[in-house]
C-alpha cells in the first residue's frame, strides 16, 4: 500500500504540473513495466467512487420525478471495465497511427491517474448533491455538459503532452479514443442498461 500512496502522491503532483503547463511533470510518473502495472492499481479506490456516482445518478433521476430502479449489475460491471480496459487498446491504435509507440507507456500511466482524478472529482460533486447542497438539476447539468467538455480538454492535453504531439495531432489522438469510447459506452448502454 505504501507504494500505491507514494505513486498517487507523485502522480497527482505530476498531473498538477501537467495541467498548469509547468516543467518537471514527466519525472512524477514511473513508466517502467512495473510502474505501468502499478498505475492500474488506481482501479481499486476508483471502484467505490464509481459506485457512489451511479447511486447519485439514480437518486438525481428520482429527485427529478422520474422512476428509476437502478442500473443492472451487468451494465455497471461492463461500463466500469470499459473505463479501464478500452483505453490501452485505443491508445495503442492511436500511438501506432501517429507513429508514437515509444511514449505509449507514459500516456497509459498518466491516463490511468487522470481517470482516478476525474472520477474522484465527479464523486465529490455527487457527495455535494447527496448532502443536499446542490439541486439535482445542477448536478445533471454539470455531468451532462461541462464535464463532457472537461473530459475532452483533459484527454487532449494528456495525449498532446505525453505523446509529444502538436495540438492538432494531439486532438486527433484524443479524439480517436473518445470516439471509440463513445461507441463502446453506447453499445454497453443499449445492450445492458435495460
UniProtKB/TrEMBL annotation:
List where the protein spans the membrane.
42-61, 81-99, 106-132, 138-159, 171-193
Annotated keywords: Membrane, Transmembrane, Transmembrane helix
Q: Where does the source fall among the domains of life?
A: Bacteria
UniProt name for this protein: Yip1 domain-containing protein
Organism encoding this protein = Hyphobacterium marinum
Amino acid at each position: 500500500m505504501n507504494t500505491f500512496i507514494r505513486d498517487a502522491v507523485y502522480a497527482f503532483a505530476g498531473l498538477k504540473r501537467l495541467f498548469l503547463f509547468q516543467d518537471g511533470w514527466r519525472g512524477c510518473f514511473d513508466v517502467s513495466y512495473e510502474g505501468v502495472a502499478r498505475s492500474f492499481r488506481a482501479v481499486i479506490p476508483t471502484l467505490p467512487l464509481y459506485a457512489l456516482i451511479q447511486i447519485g445518478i439514480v437518486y438525481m433521476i428520482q429527485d427529478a420525478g422520474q422512476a428509476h430502479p437502478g442500473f443492472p449489475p451487468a451494465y455497471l460491471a461492463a461500463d466500469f471495465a470499459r473505463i479501464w480496459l478500452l483505453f490501452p487498446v485505443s491508445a495503442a491504435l492511436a500511438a501506432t497511427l501517429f507513429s508514437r509507440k515509444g511514449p505509449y507507456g507514459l500516456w497509459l500511466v498518466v491516463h490511468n491517474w487522470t481517470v482516478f482524478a476525474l472520477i474522484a472529482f465527479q464523486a465529490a460533486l455527487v457527495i455535494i448533491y447527496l448532502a443536499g447542497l446542490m439541486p439535482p438539476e445542477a448536478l445533471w447539468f454539470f455531468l451532462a455538459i461541462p464535464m463532457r467538455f472537461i473530459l475532452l480538454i483533459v484527454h487532449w492535453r494528456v495525449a498532446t503532452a505525453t505523446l509529444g504531439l502538436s495540438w492538432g495531432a494531439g486532438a486527433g489522438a484524443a479524439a480517436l479514443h473518445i470516439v471509440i469510447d463513445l461507441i463502446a459506452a453506447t453499445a454497453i448502454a443499449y445492450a445492458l442498461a435495460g
